[in-house]
Design goal:
With about 90 residues, the protein is mostly helical. The chain contains 4 helices and no strands. About 20% of the residues are buried.
Length: about 90
Amino acid sequence: MKNKILTLVSTIMLFIPWTILPLRTNQWALESPTAEIMISCYAAFMIFSGIFTIISYVKAKAQNHLMKVCLIINSLYMAGGAAAFAMMLIQ
C-alpha cells in the first residue's frame, strides 16, 4: 500500500510543473519580481519532486514500471530546476 501511495504522489508531481504555462499567459506573471518568484518556486518544486522520487525508488523500494517512468522524468525536471537556479545566479 505504501508503494502505491508513493507512486501516486510521484505521478501527480509529473504534471504540476506544466501548470506554469497557463499562468505565464497573464500579464502580471511576466513582470519582473513576480516572474522570478514564480520560476524560483517551480524550480524548487521540481528539485524536490526529483529528490522525493529518487528516495522513494531507492530507500522505500517502490520499484514498479510507473515509478521507473516517474524516476526518469522527475530526474530530468530536477536537472532543469537546477539549471534554472544556476541561470538566475549567473545573472
